[in-house]
């Protein structure tokens, strides 16, 4: 791992970044990288229009190919009240876009022989040795959810693929779902270790390996990283990923980034009349949530995305070996595990993956592309066949009045439309 740290400065120099510079610049003519300038002009106009009509407060997007930036698009405001513009250096909550970072951290330790994909989770977090599976998702007449021992052992691979049986905070139709909400890891007190004890006491939805279900799995992986590396998760990510890649505005805590809390974007929500108002309950976890706790900027996250697009390396810094990244970005979950809503896509380790279309079906995207987004409508995707990486940031709270379209539904097709290469 020391090699990755030592070569950080070389990578930044190779990519045209300096260790202390936050802003980045696009090439003078995107045609040099194989893009259509008119398509980028159309993207700019579309984001300007969406910001003007308050679909979102603002946007910052970066499209790159290889280790060079082809286009930067900025629209609207990071703070509507002050009129501060939304730029690629505006810090935002990236929520579940933390998950691919945690997956990368885990796979780094797999490469180093400190973690095994098929290791029991209890090898790292002993409380998971006693986990139980719910017999029914509803409580019985005594108000209790009956449980049984699991038929399979929860492994690191299950965590990476969201097939661990764990729940999350988005399902409130069953008593088990409500139990997870009542015991949310995002409330209460305690560090990551203490919260794992809390989580392991909750029943699983099903046996590990049975079904894909969005969950706290990446938070558990964060604790696995801590135990295996002997470092707090925030320190491991800082020294092994963020510092080598020059991501100085990415972290879990304000002590770890180069901006103050006052610089953070407010989180906005749509009122009934469609206007944007500040969301009063916006918060950042006070613990290192590998599933949703990072803050970042477009100019930082594009470095991470370019590393993924370039087979695990940025300049002379290698974060993952090509074969490890290929495993991470390949389908790891069966169609039966995913269910019907995933037609055309599968799931790898921390990212979704576009599959070749079935006969007669519309493609879900370019086969082999992989991506993930965040709850506040941030998004990124990687197109390995073309070395393209693309990131877009905004900041909107989900709610009953949230305006459509979702940012990814606008951004991804317009980026694909800019491709002027085979």
UniProtKB/TrEMBL annotation:
InterPro entries per the UniProt record, alphabetical: Beta-lactam-related, Beta-lactam/transpept-like, Diverse_Enzym_Activities
GO MF terms, alphabetically ordered: hydrolase activity
UniProt keyword terms in alphabetical order: Hydrolase, Signal
Domain Beta-lactamase-related: 43-405
The organism's place on the tree of life at top rank: Bacteria
Signal peptide positions on this chain: 1-21
Gene3D superfamilies with a match to the protein in the record: DD-peptidase/beta-lactamase superfamily
Record-linked PANTHER family: BETA-LACTAMASE FAMILY PROTEIN (AFU_ORTHOLOGUE AFUA_5G07500), BETA-LACTAMASE-RELATED
The protein's name in its UniProt record: Serine hydrolase
Lineage of the species this protein comes from: Bacteria, Pseudomonadati, Pseudomonadota, Alphaproteobacteria, Maricaulales
């Amino acid at each position: 791992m020391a090699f990755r740290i030592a070569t950080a400065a070389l990578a930044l120099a190779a990519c045209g970044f300096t260790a202390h510079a936050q802003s980045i610049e696009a090439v003078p003519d995107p045609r040099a990288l194989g893009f259509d300038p008119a398509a980028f002009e159309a993207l700019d106009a579309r984001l300007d229009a969406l910001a003007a009509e308050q679909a979102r407060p603002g946007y910052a997007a970066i499209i790159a190919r290889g280790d060079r930036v082809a286009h930067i698009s900025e629209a609207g405001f990071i703070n509507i009240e002050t009129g501060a513009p939304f730029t690629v250096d505006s810090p935002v909550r990236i929520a579940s876009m933390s998950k691919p970072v945690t997956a990368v951290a885990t796979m780094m330790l797999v490469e180093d022989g400190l973690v095994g994909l098929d290791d029991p989770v209890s090898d790292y977090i002993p409380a998971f040795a006693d986990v139980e599976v719910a017999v029914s998702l509803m409580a019985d007449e005594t108000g209790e959810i009956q449980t049984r021992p699991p038929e399979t052992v929860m492994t690191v691979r299950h965590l990476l693929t969201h097939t661990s049986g764990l729940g999350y905070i988005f399902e409130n139709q069953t008593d088990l779902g409500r139990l997870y909400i009542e015991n949310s890891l995002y409330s209460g007190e305690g560090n990551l270790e203490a919260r794992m004890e809390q989580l392991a006491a909750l029943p699983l939805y099903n046996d590990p390996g049975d079904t894909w279900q969005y969950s706290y799995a990446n938070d558990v992986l964060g604790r696995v990283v801590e135990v295996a590396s002997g470092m707090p998760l925030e320190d491991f990510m800082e020294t092994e990923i963020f510092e080598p890649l020059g991501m100085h505005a990415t972290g879990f805590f304000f002590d770890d980034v180069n901006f103050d809390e006052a610089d953070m974007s407010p989180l906005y929500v749509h009122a009934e009349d469609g206007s944007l108002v500040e969301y009063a309950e916006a918060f950042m976890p006070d613990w290192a949530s590998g599933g949703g706790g990072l803050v970042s900027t477009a100019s930082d996250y594009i470095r991470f995305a370019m590393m993924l697009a370039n087979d695990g390396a940025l300049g002379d810094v290698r974060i993952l070996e090509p074969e490890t990244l290929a495993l991470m970005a390949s389908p790891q979950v069966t169609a039966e595990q995913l269910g019907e809503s995933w037609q055309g896509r599968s799931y790898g380790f921390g990212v979704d993956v576009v599959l070749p279309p079935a006969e007669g079906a519309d493609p879900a995207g370019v086969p082999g592309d992989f991506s993930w987004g965040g709850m506040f409508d941030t998004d990124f995707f990687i197109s390995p066949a073309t070395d393209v990486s693309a990131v877009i940031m905004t900041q909107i709270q989900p709610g009953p009045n949230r305006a459509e379209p979702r940012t990814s539904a606008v951004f991804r097709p317009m980026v694909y439309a800019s491709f002027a290469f085979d």
